[in-house]
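To close the chapter, one final illustration. This time we ask the reader to focus less on the individual chains and more on the assembly as a whole: which components sit near each other, and how the overall shape emerges from the parts.
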Amino acid sequence: MKKRVLYWLRNDLRLVDNEILSELADFDGELDLVFVIEPRWFRQTNYQSKSFGTHKFNFLRKSLAAFAQAVEKLGQTLHVITGEPEQVISQRLQKYEIETLVCTEQVGVYEQKQLNKIKALYPHVTVKTYQQDTLFKASDLPFQLDNLPKNFTAFRKKVEAEPTFIAAPLPAVSLLPHPVQLCPEQAIDDVPAHSGSFKGGLIAAQQHCNAYFSSKAPSSYKETRNELDGFSNSTKFSVWLAGGTISAKQLYREVEVYELKNGANESSYWIKFELLWREYFKWHAVQAGAKLFHFKGQKQSAPLTTFNSQRFEAWCQGRTPFALVNAIMHELNATGYISNRSRQIAASCLVNELELDWRYGAAYFEQQLIDYDVAANWGNWQYIAGVGVDPRGGRHFHINKQTALYDPLARFIRKWQGDVTVSELIDVVDAADWPIAT
Ligand SMILES: Cc1cc2nc3c(=O)[nH]c(=O)nc-3n(C[C@H](O)[C@H](O)[C@H](O)COP(=O)(O)OP(=O)(O)OC[C@H]3O[C@@H](n4cnc5c(N)ncnc54)[C@H](O)[C@@H]3O)c2cc1C
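The assembled structure is written out below.
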């Protein structure tokens, strides 16, 4: 019998710069490509949100459909199976007598636990993981991971001082081994053509990358990146990075190619600077483990906030007393994407004005954002709540000041109908449940 490998795909739905597929291209055996849709993604968590809202799930389906089409052209089949990953993967390992399991290394503690369970169940199966969601490999970092610098600036200075090695992105694979099983088990449902404003999948990712770097936008990125709105004001790479339809290494390389052609400036450098932020949060997540989700966070200091369902609901639905925050939440709910500045303002409002437990906000973003990334999302929320890797200890984005700076003519507020109506008080009952007079 031919040797068999199972590749468990997660956030690596691409053919370019995919170390696993490149390594397997001339493998003289059979390959099983599997993606697992987990039922828990659609169950409400302790924080009153689900892991996947409609926009996020539709975007994933587009990425899956594009990947399935791409591997089909190479004679392969992507099996998209709904179930608990431990069971789905275990069953296939058994059923098809597979000797080797390969996957991209995950920074989330939950995802690591899933793999560890499978390893424990099948000690005779060889498990190989690949660090291909980051710019650097852990072994190339200029420090041991246990000594990860306590803040981003210290990290950046270290990796920039004697530039840390970034491997060249690998070319697209053009050959794949035969599938283990020939008939597809579950087709990917048709995705509504107009689900959200971003096109998902590896081809859309490459098209966006080409369009962005053929424009002059990278040369003014630093001046525009803080805007609330506007497609080319920031790169929008996060949307494709999250599902791994493009890699951070590819994008970093594209910035360097752009700089060679058009000249480097502070703006083009700043794209690399932000990709380093992503990188820092990834390694921070590995180091923080379950603490990434703790109320007291990395700092082990409890914020003076609590949970109040009415305030939380008002924030989620964009019915707070703050017009700018309402507009931001309306955009998030309608599209699944908001700018970095909008994320900072909405998160700061939840923590500072509404005095709510930051984890509820982080979980709501997890449900809504099509670019949701466990490390970036929970790491940034901790940062704003003052329990993360921020040397200043929390950030308060004063809403009036932010409105004056970024939406002085209230265009964004009008576009997303953020206006506050008289009835939008934070609380309609007091702590003892008495109605509050308007
Ligand atoms: C509360 C909060 C939650 C966030 N949740 C997420 C999330 O779930 N997924 C996510 O990818 N980003 C998250 N971010 C970071 C940032 O807002 C987005 O990466 C950025 O807005 C995406 O748009 P862009 O690709 O146009 O970014 P650009 O400004 O063009 O940046 C280029 C790339 O750099 C990286 N990057 C930029 N800023 C950050 C940052 N602060 N932290 C980490 N990486 C960064 C992203 O990969 C981004 O694609 C969050 C920020 C905050 C304040």
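DSSP finds 17 helices and six strands in the chain. Residues 146 and 287 are 7 Å apart (CA to CA). With these observations in hand, you are ready for the problems at the end of the chapter.
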